[in-house]
Batch of 4 targets.
Target 1
Amino acid sequence: MVKIAILGGSGYTAVELLKILLRHPQAEVVAVTSRQDDTPLVAELHPVLTGRIALRCEPFNPDGLAARGVQCAFGCLPHGVSMTTLPALLERGVRVIDLSADYRLRDPNVYAQWYGESHEDLAHLAQAVYGLPEIYGDEVATAPLVANPGCYPQTAILGLAPLAAGRSIDLKSIIVDSKSGISGAGRTPKLTTHFPECNENFAAYAVGNHRHTPEIEQALADLAGEAVEVIFTPHLVPMDRGIFSTIYVTPHRPMTQAQLTELYREYYRNAPFVRVVDHLPATKHTTGTNFLDIAVRVVRDRVLVLACEDNLIRGASGVAVQNFNRMYGFDERTGLFG
Amino acid sequence: MVKIAILGGSGYTAVELLKILLRHPQAEVVAVTSRQDDTPLVAELHPVLTGRIALRCEPFNPDGLAARGVQCAFGCLPHGVSMTTLPALLERGVRVIDLSADYRLRDPNVYAQWYGESHEDLAHLAQAVYGLPEIYGDEVATAPLVANPGCYPQTAILGLAPLAAGRSIDLKSIIVDSKSGISGAGRTPKLTTHFPECNENFAAYAVGNHRHTPEIEQALADLAGEAVEVIFTPHLVPMDRGIFSTIYVTPHRPMTQAQLTELYREYYRNAPFVRVVDHLPATKHTTGTNFLDIAVRVVRDRVLVLACEDNLIRGASGVAVQNFNRMYGFDERTGLFG
Amino acid sequence: MVKIAILGGSGYTAVELLKILLRHPQAEVVAVTSRQDDTPLVAELHPVLTGRIALRCEPFNPDGLAARGVQCAFGCLPHGVSMTTLPALLERGVRVIDLSADYRLRDPNVYAQWYGESHEDLAHLAQAVYGLPEIYGDEVATAPLVANPGCYPQTAILGLAPLAAGRSIDLKSIIVDSKSGISGAGRTPKLTTHFPECNENFAAYAVGNHRHTPEIEQALADLAGEAVEVIFTPHLVPMDRGIFSTIYVTPHRPMTQAQLTELYREYYRNAPFVRVVDHLPATKHTTGTNFLDIAVRVVRDRVLVLACEDNLIRGASGVAVQNFNRMYGFDERTGLFG
Amino acid sequence: MVKIAILGGSGYTAVELLKILLRHPQAEVVAVTSRQDDTPLVAELHPVLTGRIALRCEPFNPDGLAARGVQCAFGCLPHGVSMTTLPALLERGVRVIDLSADYRLRDPNVYAQWYGESHEDLAHLAQAVYGLPEIYGDEVATAPLVANPGCYPQTAILGLAPLAAGRSIDLKSIIVDSKSGISGAGRTPKLTTHFPECNENFAAYAVGNHRHTPEIEQALADLAGEAVEVIFTPHLVPMDRGIFSTIYVTPHRPMTQAQLTELYREYYRNAPFVRVVDHLPATKHTTGTNFLDIAVRVVRDRVLVLACEDNLIRGASGVAVQNFNRMYGFDERTGLFG
């Protein structure tokens, strides 16, 4: 059993983590921290957990956590807070899976450019591994700090990895048109996520400037071995969960749909959570699961990739446990076929 | 043309009022006030109005409004704020339709008991008319101050008026089980109205202590000529609009469904916005309209009344314009058959 | 491992059963039957199962199923079809958990009255056990045929069991006002479940004549030892899942909320899936789980019981597995804390 | 007053037409036809119209309609049915606005290719005017037969018209990624529009082969004076109404966002229903209106156009009335600012 702490227990990624870890045979959640002044029961924050967890939220105390034998912490803190909180744990030998964006971008200048503040933990940034297991799984296994990937980027990166790795598309004309359920915006009430505003509504946001853009480009560049440019347009869908990305690329040479499907099947033949499907995917086929479904289509001279996932499971907490399993040598699927 | 001011222009009742008044042939909206520090264009607050209204929000200035010839103000302010804001206009001869709860309960002690603060404008409270046109329409016509009725109460009061007026039911065993779309909670973001919390969810709230209870009881007691007791249970439905009330009463004597329907049809024969229907009503039949639909059913020894409406139109802004039409001698339906 | 067949694999209860049984350590699904002419892969009917189940639908063949060692069948067939299909399996020694209504009502005359056709399998009807584990759990353990309970009835029966068993309420004035997500209507497209008809809509249906009424009354009468009369009003909520029942009863003697809560806590102290909560319950707290949440409130001289569940899990497939666990001596929770 | 018949009264476009025409000061609906065997009241088909229209559906009888003085018919029939039904009216001098696709594609070979059947009314096809008023408004005024435009195509055509007319973009690399509410699929229940299937779901459909593709290309080619190729990908959004198109084009020369906005404002300066907005548009800003909102953005070396509308109003019935107004010389906005 690995002793686990959840840092920042009030949000949606925390409750999904708890649901998964409570059924994980090798995980024991021993602490849930909160930055709030009071210390509510975790089940009061998340009534769905009533009767399933007796823990009370506690303030973050790195010495206390280490003393209680915490071996692994899942960071569910906002970006900016992560990079000032996690070092204390890392220095005490606790391995960390950080669900924030703080350790995803290797270049601190890129971080500063997109997040508007300087990176304050360059030491650990240099050690962090980008936790997309299908691409960086070997490094994840031994990493002290895993930067859990963003929800949108996983659909774009895994949706394009076979083509980027083969350098078989124009890497400067990639369009990623993504659509997300509202839970992706977090649990803090805002006008844009107020039910009567976003229900029965569809809209784009952050056009041309969403922070997941450099994360997508960094991973695709790793695969392609050269710089990549992506136009990424996120939209909000009136549903709780699910991300769907419609990706348009220009192949260097014509490919048939059968060739493309075969290329993808081969690329992901050892990836238990990537399903290359023949039918058109739909977010509901992935809801509540850690699967990421991909289909490819040839339309005129373009290739379309359709990729979707549950943004809270595959997009955040599920892939975090997938990383956890790799870090501790468990079967990658443990706790995730629920 | 009647010159109109909207007080408190940022919420849902304000935008619905504006949509109706912009097509009303006898109404001219000359001012929209806001308590915010800046003075945005009304169309910036409500982009649906882009290109349809050039007004900018302005601070509340009763002298200025009077000087510009405002004859009628619609108050879209929170309760508590209404009773400290409206007197200045009433004293300048402006007639007011107040959509808040401040002037609905005739007894200030009842107000204090349910709203937790003393009533601060007893003078105008004494002059206010409860603006449910089908019951109090004659008084509305000459009132200086109309207390526009609550959304839930209209379904309960109009749903029971024929039986209460005939004193043909047990007035102490009335159960009103009501369900409302989320817009009824207003436009201020809160956790309970955050999309991922209330979407795909159904729950009761304010069980046994919702503030609309005394409003229902006051009107039914007016009709019955004796005290009435209601158990009122509101619930939130994951949809934008609509209120549906399922009402259970015990008749003194058995009645057939046909007799009941006939009683209701006769009672509302001159009410253009109350539809007594044979089929089971549904909120969607009333969406975007000022209709309140009612059906009656006999089940075992009880009578069930099913009543529904669009909570923002019939439940607030539509009935406000219906009151406006009565106050200024226009056909009751003007602007409301849109 | 118990070898299992699912009869009628195309609907929502079948796919939920499959999700649960695929993670159940003692269950092996060896056959899924379908009444359709073709024999699609189960994963084609339910793409969410892609990559998780290789079975193909097959025609119903009782000899074949018995020959392959099927020990237990879950019937996901429509009422009427169940009672002509299941006898062939029961006669071959296969135990059956029937999710239809065919074996729930002990009195075939009541069945005929509410379902409009004569019961055609009186022999097995006489052996069937009503599968509400918290009430009839001992009989379930040894039953050859378990009539899995209806979705609505569970909220009403478990919501009232402590009071009915104590005969502490007026058993002739029970009002059950229930609200259900749309999946309760099944997977066959109809105008009433067509998205643009039921989305953004709330309505009652089957007022005074829903078939779950006698099922509720039968179980409450068992508990009370005398006849019970219920007024049951179902409504459709624009959401996938969840049932919420607001129940109004008249206690013989005044009780405090604390006394009521204590009575319920004591009654359900050994029931791992009934949570008596202090807060107001909400369907979303139970989504995806086998929990049934109950709260009690005293309002004026009435007692209100608020009970909710996931209609497909607790209301159908989850409780079916709970029954399965009892039938085969497994811990009641096996496979259900997912 | 123009006497009007609605052909095919049971669907969503018919009820929206009726709502608009009932408040139109120059329109009198004298007949509603239906292909069903019975002849229900229109208000029975559409309970929202209860108390507002007394007409009963009637079988289609062109002589009868002509004899009663019908001057204009709105065709709400399926494609294929339109081209065999409308000639009888056109030959009797009735002007027709056809909401089906039958008369939109000028080239019958293109029709046959995309709709899978030969066109059966070449005579009237040659006279038909494509009823997108902002582009073809002058021809609409005198047309005997107006082919009302498709819902998706309006967002694409009006979204690109200023750029296509100026031939300032690569006309072979246009990507239109569109998202529609479910009402666009019509009122006939299907599994794909069954609430529990499409709610909480987002998916693409008809990838690379949607029938609106040639309609978009035909109009853009008219504007550009040369052939145009579009990759059009439609998706279904779990909401009743609204279409949102995210359009990606490659400009021949760099343009600033300000230049683009100015180009669009100038192009649409006389179009009362096209709003070129600075903010990011959202479908909810157009719900219930005949507005089509457009914003433009420059991202890297591409131009993004974001265009949205209410698919049933602007996308079908509202633009049909806009065409009607032009055909009969009324102000284009009559009945449409509701």
Note: Residues 151-165 of chain A form the longest helix (15 residues).
Target 2
Amino acid sequence: MRTGERDQRAIWLDEDGWGVRVIDQRALPHGFRVLRLETAADAASAIREMAVRGAPLIGATGAYGVALAARAEPADRAPADAANLLKDARPTGANLAWAVDRVIGAVSEVPPARRAAAAYSEAARICQEDAAINRAIGEHGAELIAAEWERAGRRRRVEVLTHCNTGWLATVERGTALAAVYEAAEREIPLHVWVTETRPREQGAGLTAWELAQAGVPFTVIVDGAAGHLLQRRGADLVIVGTDRTSAGGDVANKIGTYPLALAARASEVPFYAAVPSPSIDWAIADGLAIPIEERDPAEVAAVTGLAPSGRVESVRVVPQGARVANWAFDVTPADLVSGLITERGVAQATSAGLAALFPERSPAGASNQA
Amino acid sequence: MRTGERDQRAIWLDEDGWGVRVIDQRALPHGFRVLRLETAADAASAIREMAVRGAPLIGATGAYGVALAARAEPADRAPADAANLLKDARPTGANLAWAVDRVIGAVSEVPPARRAAAAYSEAARICQEDAAINRAIGEHGAELIAAEWERAGRRRRVEVLTHCNTGWLATVERGTALAAVYEAAEREIPLHVWVTETRPREQGAGLTAWELAQAGVPFTVIVDGAAGHLLQRRGADLVIVGTDRTSAGGDVANKIGTYPLALAARASEVPFYAAVPSPSIDWAIADGLAIPIEERDPAEVAAVTGLAPSGRVESVRVVPQGARVANWAFDVTPADLVSGLITERGVAQATSAGLAALFPERSPAGASNQA
């Protein structure tokens, strides 16, 4: 995406061909800071501490983490050890293990001397594929927004509701759900985005608002609890969210607070879509309730980080000293609440059959055909 | 309620028989501060700025606001002018206009020299009635908690989910939904309360958590968006919330974010109750969607107030500079999502007939019988 003068990705290879640069998303929207990752441990820490976040970007960072390990020590166990470290950094998103395993696969048959180059190449390929996937998801998603515009007789702007951050900051480039918004805006479809703040970490208020402001797309931030009211009063034409992992049956694990949006959308007959790059699909899990839900540090809930009057970024505690806090990072929206899954191959019905129709090579029948 | 050494109400007449004391709830949970109100304008400002909040406490404060006006200037128009000022302070809650009108009614036929005394007496009566209503609501609500305990074979504690603050801070004494929790705890029913933080103003994280900690009731704070996940995984046995205004048909206007809780409770077949003191019932409104929804200062969403590392209470901005924000303070839960309305006369079905059965004197049929 363009930020100021330059085209910016959320992750890129540094000019020395070794280090990996990522935007430190903990600094946004009040500051802009870039980190250099030099080891697999750096990559794992950036993922765990959420300097990088968003399932596709976590995957890309994990891929480069294996490459960094292969560069430092190409001997037999080093990339595999790094892979385990990286995969443990965050448990819910599907892309991380997928990307790490891909790089491991790319180096496993390669002599140690060529492993680093093979790993870097595979990580770069994953990034290129991510950008292409997101471009396609944006196009399919924009069709849905265009259809709402037509339905409104082109008389008013389309109102889109989204949650968390699914823009270019969550991916290598362009984004998933927000890619549809960007694509629609480029097609000059008038639209406005309702942005839920997304407690506890405020990725909506902080990151999505920042991205949309940069892109010149009009938006309004609301608290998470207000989305039900908005939908009840028909303030949104459609909901588009992302996913961290989607089951083979179409259940969508995504940022905590997504499931209530889907319930409210259904109650008001507003379509609810998830943008689902295929690397986020877990073909081995049929029932989304089996997806592991990460529990994070209670401090994320107990305090809120923002810009203090002093001009410094500070965390302020919102609970009484010693209060017990729980912090599930994701929830699961059952497939029957999902109007469609926007994949790079088109919009799938949120069912096993719907996904299998678009990805026959991954469905049990398709897989056995190949056997 | 007992806080430390003393029994504490949220509002009380000062020893000079003139000023009215209220706890300044903006200071909690990080500090404890008491305000003295001496004029109707003081009372209106305390309501508008949310030094006092909670529909019953707003009602009591409004009642004393009229009394303060009658004391300052008992001439014909003064109490009525004050009444309009007070009623305009917040539009959604039903108790404010009800209480103000009651005090106006009590002074209207009284000669100016006795108006102040009559107004103070009526305000005190409203406070006494509020305490009695809440005591009764607590008893009826505790029966529902006791029933869940029996259903669990008394083998584990009852898990209660609540939203915002409905405790003694929201009323004159005891609370509404939290009165049920306090009553159940006094009956030694083991229980645990899930407290949604309640953005934007954090009445759950700040006030409910503070009250429960004071009372020794175990609790856990979660973000608003996490309640759906909790209910989906059957982490709560029942939901009890308060109300700012309930329609004659049983639709419940309450703090923003209540409606998604009701949707999630229904989806997981968890009972959802609203604690409804009869002064919160608007007998003139059949359809809850006609209840006016207050829109408050966007700054409440754009920034979060809490305790900074410096030990000072500060607000930190969570959106980018200039971001557009919307801030609806309430939403409406349709009656068909409500398992029951816990009134001071018992648990009513959330229907016109259900409310009319408990309040026959207010139903159209009952009213015409009296005519």
Note: The first strand of chain B starts at residue 2 and ends at 3.
Target 3
Amino acid sequence: MYENIKIGIFYRIDYVESAKFVLDKLANHFEVKHFTDSTLDFEEEKFPVDITIVVGGDGTVLRTLKKVKTPVIGIKAGRLGFFSGYLLNETDKLIEDIKNWNFTEDKRWMLRIETTKGVYFAINDAVLQKDIKQKILDFDVRITDGTFYYHADGIVISTPTGSSAYSLALGGPIMLPNVEAFEITPIAPQFLATRSLVIPSSERISVFVNDKANLIVDGDTVDQIDAIHVRKCTRTVVLLRPKSYDFSTSIKDKIGYGRKILGNGG
Amino acid sequence: MYENIKIGIFYRIDYVESAKFVLDKLANHFEVKHFTDSTLDFEEEKFPVDITIVVGGDGTVLRTLKKVKTPVIGIKAGRLGFFSGYLLNETDKLIEDIKNWNFTEDKRWMLRIETTKGVYFAINDAVLQKDIKQKILDFDVRITDGTFYYHADGIVISTPTGSSAYSLALGGPIMLPNVEAFEITPIAPQFLATRSLVIPSSERISVFVNDKANLIVDGDTVDQIDAIHVRKCTRTVVLLRPKSYDFSTSIKDKIGYGRKILGNGG
């Protein structure tokens, strides 16, 4: 059924040996069209493939998801990630799963962030944050319902996917990937506003700052700006995961939340 | 356009003087079909009305919303509530707003909680919680995606409406009323699971406990049980509020979240 599958491989440069191991295995079963350092520029149309394999951590998968239109599979040594559903020693299983298309197709939506200087897309989050030397900033967060004000070091607007990234570190909730909502979380807010706000993904969010702040999109600083406009992007990205590695398993494995612990039978 | 409007009034017994004040004013303009102590049993079909007015706090409005099928308006002395959109001294404005149907219709959905002993409905939340003398309980929270385990004093499942009630006190996020999601928040969990889980309202949640726990629905203890099944109820309730009193205003007024503070111009 899934014969003649064409595959592309991206790898993180310090995982090159693992990547070669994967390449050798996959090349016995599928047509591997490219084998590419993930930091290099890439012209997708020159290498048409059905599936993109990423050998690296969550960060490498995240950057690859934004680079290609195909479904993406993450594979890494050591421990599984939120985005990496296969361990290196499960490469044979991966080959079987590809042949049988035995995956959960995990669609994730993105943020579209517009400023006067450009448009950016985020799978995890958009952050507006002061420099170390700047004073605490005033943020006006406007949605249909009204305006929320924060006197804080920064503001994080995240997708459900991003809820287990920086937002989680700031005290936010864990959102299942299929929740249709944004999460807004202030960084070090005065005085007690240390809670996240969860709003429908159909909203358009504008954030105005009283000074220029750094705009950080999925971890990369892209701009210095005093206003952004955020909404759900129409494009989705697709992760393929083994059916056994669902979201609750990844949350339990990666951060221990909701895992059985001593005292409750585990 | 809105002539011959029939009105029912519920009041909290210690607000009876305020309620009489409202009754006298409204009776000059509308047909008041009943004037009822909110704690009494009530047969709605005997008193058909278009609008139900509640003189009392959020708790009284909440109980009334579950008792009647009409839209509900909350009015109280002192300060506004999440559910009470009019102050007592705004009764004349309320009369004009009724005549012109000048309201935001605020629809809220409910939880349907099923146990072996009965079915219950919650506007805010369903809580499973141990007695003081009981040991810490083991909760298995099952959703489509998998099972989360908590070793804790209790578990709160809340609607977006309930996110500003008990869940908020436990550290949960603030959810806009129109978010299509449940919030699950553990009470005093071992060891570091002090975060909320946000899941789509299309999910069905089952909670299993290793001992009987108190089931508390919107603040009332209704059962001792070791399993509950929760989903979104098809019935909605309708609050009428003045257009100026939106959700963000109520959040800023009631709990100070997102309000301008000294340091950001307010």
Note: The first strand of chain B starts at residue 6 and ends at 11.
Target 4
Amino acid sequence: MKNIIQPVKGTREFYPLEMAVRNWIYENIRNVSESFGYSEYDGPFLEPTDLYAAKSGEELVKEQSFVFPDRGGNLITLRPELTPSLARMVAQKQRQLVYPLRWWSFGPFWRYEKPQKGRAREFFQWNIDLIGSKSPEADAELIAICAEFFKQIGLTPDNVKVLINDRRLMDQKLSELGIEASLKKMTLKIIDRQDKMDRSTWKAYALDNGLKEEQFVGLTKILGNTDLYQESAELQTVFNALESLGVREYVQFDPKIVRGLDYYTGVVFEARDIGKGARAILGGGRYDNLVKDVGGEPLTGVGFAMGDVVLPIILEQYGLIPDLQVNPTQILVTIFDENLMPVSLATAANLRRAGFSVQTYPEPAKIGKQLKFADRCAVQFAIVIGPEEKEQGIVQVKDLRTREQSSVPTDGLIKYINGMLAE
Amino acid sequence: MKNIIQPVKGTREFYPLEMAVRNWIYENIRNVSESFGYSEYDGPFLEPTDLYAAKSGEELVKEQSFVFPDRGGNLITLRPELTPSLARMVAQKQRQLVYPLRWWSFGPFWRYEKPQKGRAREFFQWNIDLIGSKSPEADAELIAICAEFFKQIGLTPDNVKVLINDRRLMDQKLSELGIEASLKKMTLKIIDRQDKMDRSTWKAYALDNGLKEEQFVGLTKILGNTDLYQESAELQTVFNALESLGVREYVQFDPKIVRGLDYYTGVVFEARDIGKGARAILGGGRYDNLVKDVGGEPLTGVGFAMGDVVLPIILEQYGLIPDLQVNPTQILVTIFDENLMPVSLATAANLRRAGFSVQTYPEPAKIGKQLKFADRCAVQFAIVIGPEEKEQGIVQVKDLRTREQSSVPTDGLIKYINGMLAE
């Protein structure tokens, strides 16, 4: 097996077990999203690079995206995120759509990152957004959706927290420190980088990028002040709504959360494992200008995105991934010999029409070999039809859990299997 | 709305209605695939160009694929098909996997084709394959899966047919015409192009590419001979198996079917709308060398792929796309005013925990406006909680189908809604 063509670094192969995990996550996402009344949608996977250039932030577009020219020379990007596509789709049908608009999606994204544990270049992402309401209760709803998702898959407030902040509050505090408008975007970047550097490197980074010594000292005070949300009417309303929604215990104010995307304008949040990894599981926030920025009329939005790479690592750590069914097959119909192929095929077809998942062995082979195959597929029943069975109008049904075997009349087979399954 | 950033030509936007259609197709695919005992899997979306270069055929790789260099200069392809990835995944775990192996998948693919009705540059595709059996009954099983899929979505044998042929049979007939081995691949291409050209263009194409006049005449006779399958033991076994499986009427021999991919080695098939469009819906066949060609031990396979672009066009033509639910919401909880926000949020949260899909209006607004929103979302129930209701511990439930309104005690609300839904 030496010359197998290798997959591209950072891409994903979903063998049936990995696929079952992806589907289990998708199903939980669907349940929670639909429970809040959100409709599923999807955008294109290829987008013009211009769509991101405006507002996603330079790092994402220039360093972290797969960008290539199409045959006409236009720059195309493999979507690194969905919100700009969502904004464009809304802008295109802005007058026909009904607001508040609640949409969710689950699909593939690409980022050119160094592949490592918790990072892949291809990943799946849940996106969920509420468009057309400025209320803090809309922000709270999205945060409650995170919390309900965690609750549903078994993560408690002792495992994970949604950390929230408000860029408007930070903007006000930065003004109070005398940080000029032109330096504010950079300051948010400095805050965002804090936990990626050690203390002295981070300080040097802050001062190199224009903060004065006393502004830096002031900034560290702000970032340590966990009561700061009391200065924000919006955040207090968000917390009250979260209380009413019954998920307050999952949520915590954290002034260090500002998120990296340029388009956020208000409440921002990030969910983290609170174990020692402190890995970010999802992030989101309010964006009030994005629909306008892609060419629509002004329209506000709030939403978040969660990838599928970090989550399973955390779930495994807490033993929360259930035993998942990898092979749907319930019944194997064996093939006694070439002459008896037709009766076995017809029996399988009848069982399928009755709603069962049925495989036939695709060719005659020793019955022992076929039964071993049934065991390896974790099939529950194996059916054997030899010449005598055919003549008598019966089949042999082996229950592979109990190893018991019964002779069952062909015309009573469906009823028999249903009975066994109901036991 | 003049300056909206345009999507890339040939890409797809799935608004909730289009998404519901995609999901409906996916669900039908899942049902049929699982009914035959196949497990879901998925491959990477980005693959090294080398993976396709070997065996998919020059046209697909050089003309129809999105190919670009990664940052290290290696050529990467957006997957135009799945079979080579499947072969590689099998080769990588060849000793651990259980055979016969039955796998299916549904996901995005890309081809650089001229966008037109029935063609897109981004599309979804169903792939389903049986690996590790050489028997004609394995070929028949895949064809039966096509037929059962058509049956399930309502397409009858009067609407669609699966046309089948065998490349081994064609190879033998081409030998009988004195067509040399070196010209056979080209001859298959000539056959494959027949219905894309008018008669005289096609003849010129055949002669220009090396066929002699008498070989061309012989070839047209072969392509018109619908009894030719009687010379193929394999095809006769396939037809017998299809008879046993109860789907013979969906299938027809057609010597003009050879399929375009280079890696097919035996039975090949294509399903077509038999209306005047005669559009190809899906195609597949047997490939006995592909696992070896990507670096594994020799292992046979048979499978097919169906895109999601042509199928809905045909289904619409026959009126077979059902009314699909676009918005999952069952209940809207209105917001009377800011003071009553908490009781409405808490009521919504309780209803969600009872399993209902519930939206709240995200801010206080005139009740009439909120009810109009409920109607536009096709919500069944709207709940109003004003100051009096709160004081009395009741809620008003409006059934938006009948416009009837009832006062319901808060603690009996879940039971009440369940009762209304059971009616």
Note: Chain A touches chain B through 104 residues (CB under 8 Å).
